[in-house]
Amino acid sequence: MINLNTALQYIIIAIVILIILAVAIKLTRKDFAIKENKLINYLGGKDNIVNAECNMSRFKVILHDVKIVDKDAIQKLGAKGIVEIDNQLKIIFDSNAKQLKKYIDEIV
Prior knowledge:
Layout: H1 4-42, E1 49-55, E2 58-63, H2 71-76, E3 81-85, E4 88-92, H3 97-107
Antiparallel strand pairs: 1-2, 2-4, 3-4
């Protein structure tokens, strides 16, 4: 049988773990927003984005001018690959493509 002191210690440990998880989640969301703001800039700014779509890990964006896109910087943000077709880019990310589309839809 667990005595009162041991139970109290377990409760304190659980609370500390929950606080650490909450801080980690908050920092991850903040980093995501910073990363996505950079991506929008690398795509030529929000005025250069015509439309954005996502399919699994692929993020497709239609642009006014593909020439002003900084593809090297996009790759440094974590893109696994970039395919350019006419005025659109297909960018392969991990599982963040849906979050990315939602974020860009809010801004554009």
